[in-house]
Design goal:
alpha/beta; 21% strand; FAD/NAD(P)-binding domain; 10 helices; D-Amino Acid Oxidase, Chain A, domain 2; 406 residues; 8-stranded mixed β-sheet; binds flavin-adenine dinucleotide; 6-stranded mixed β-sheet; 19 strands
């Protein structure tokens, strides 16, 4: 059974829904119910690489990324639960001149916050990451406060922190609809009963667009498949080595259990209409695109020759949500009072979860502690109103994710 009444209902127990529930409770809200049709972190969240990225290329995002970084650095103090934040730093590598300005923009951000980012030579990069060969690189930026986390533990810790602060968490509870009266949210319908409420936060990941279509909304975000793989242990990989991001080939690699976790953007970008999947589809059912994996491996081998003969022990894939301008989406919607959307994670939802949860909680609290005008759901006006245009643009944004174009 679910509670009959709540002040706020959060739909989705992924990293974005759990962060929102945590931030709402931490802000002093009560009678909050978090619902997921599966377990906590049963969607895309557990398949993430969990990498963090605190230096944006655009000054406008600095307050947001600073909040996320502070939160990750103090995760236990804030939530009561420790996560293992491997703050190994990251290397952002430009192989061609074309991508050097993007690195300079990030260096400027670093200077503006008094951060110790530095330029490295290819040899220094190799010394930090012995399997890495970027001998011809035109620029290598070390961001020392980046790192990675185990993504499921992040959602689990938010959920635990939320529960400690009074949030009711109902898993295995699918939301089947939302009833409205006078243009405002009134009732959340679930398989286990209805909940009367004035606020609903929709953080249903890949299902957000599909769910909101039932409410007559056209939310401009679509799920795009993203894939990665983990190798068997490799000689020379150390647990302390930084995350590596090669901008040109859009490949990333970080240590995982003695091997490398490798992923990348731009390889066969493909968005989905969730209605095309069977009703019972879940993220682990997502089929592998082997051509994507092959293209990714071919690209990664250029700078990680050690991957040539690496055994693959795990494939990871999921459906993060993209928007047409590459920006997050956290806001109320124009036509339904009391409905807040948290979506458009841009394949960065683990990292951005503190900020996105905070912005969602701020909206319900009637305040703005992090500037969030750029995240409004209605910012596209009439653009991308048709599915084909929306999906094409979101695939395009995904395809150039590392190139600082949006
Ligand atoms: C291979 C890969 C690598 C990645 N690497 C990184 C990375 O390095 N750094 C990073 O920050 N991000 C990364 N990501 C992205 C990250 O995984 C996502 O941004 C994040 O998990 C999105 O979280 P979410 O809460 O929006 O979605 P989800 O985790 O999918 O959660 C949505 C939840 O909503 C629930 N739900 C849906 N419909 C209903 C309903 N009707 N009723 C009840 N519940 C419902 C689902 O069951 C699900 O649990 C990566 C993703 C992948 C796939």
């Amino acid at each position: 059974m679910v509670p009959r009444e709540a002040n706020i209902v959060v739909i989705g127990g992924g990293v974005l829904g759990t962060s929102t529930a945590f931030h709402l409770a931490a802000a002093g809200h009560d009678r909050i119910v978090l619902l997921d049709r599966g377990p906590i972190a049963g969607g895309t969240t557990p398949f993430a690489a969990g990498q963090t990225s605190y230096l944006p290329s655009n000054e406008r995002l600095l307050p947001f990324t600073s909040y996320c970084l502070d939160f990750f650095e103090q995760f236990e103090e804030k939530t009561g639960y420790a996560i293992n934040f491997h703050q190994n730093g990251s290397l952002r590598v430009a192989l061609s001149e074309q991508h050097v300005p993007g690195l300079h923009a990030r260096m400027e951000m670093a200077k503006s916050i008094g951060d110790r980012a530095e330029w490295l030579t290819p040899q220094q990069a190799h010394d930090l990451v012995p399997g890495l060969d970027v001998s011809g690189a035109k620029g290598i930026l070390l961001a020392p406060r980046d790192g990675f986390v185990e993504p499921r533990s992040v959602a689990a810790s938010y959920a635990a922190g939320a529960r400690d602060r009074g949030v009711t968490i109902c898993t295995r509870t699918a939301v089947t609809g939302i009833d409205m009266a006078d243009g405002a949210v009134r009732t959340v319908r679930t398989a286990a009963g209805n909940i009367q409420t004035r606020w609903v936060v929709l953080a249903a990941g890949a299902w957000t667009r599909q769910f909101s279509q039932q409410l007559g909304l056209n939310i401009r975000t679509v799920p795009v498949r993203h894939q990665a793989f983990v190798t068997a242990p490799l000689a020379g990989v150390t647990e302390r080595q930084p995350v590596v991001r090669i901008v040109d080939t859009q490949v990333y690699a970080r240590p995982e259990a003695g091997g490398l976790l490798v992923g990348g953007y731009g390889y066969r970008p493909l968005s989905f209409d969730m209605d095309a999947f069977p009703n019972r589809f879940e993220i682990p059912d997502l089929e592998a695109d082997q051509i994507y994996y092959q293209q990714l491996t071919d690209a990664a081998v250029q700078n990680f020759p050690v991957l040539q003969d690496a055994g693959i022990i795990q494939e990871r894939r999921g459906l993060p949500t993209m928007t047409p301008d590459g920006q997050y989406m956290v806001s109320e919607v124009d036509d339904i009072q009391g409905l807040v959307i948290v979506a458009g994670c841009q394949v960065g939802g683990i990292w951005s979860s503190p900020g996105l949860g905070r912005v969602a909680a701020d909206i319900i609290s009637g305040q703005e502690s992090i500037p969030a005008a750029a995240f409004k759901a209605n910012r596209f006006d009439e653009a991308y109103a048709h599915d084909a245009a929306l999906r094409t643009q979101c695939e395009q944004v995904y395809a150039v994710h590392y190139w600082d174009m949006y």
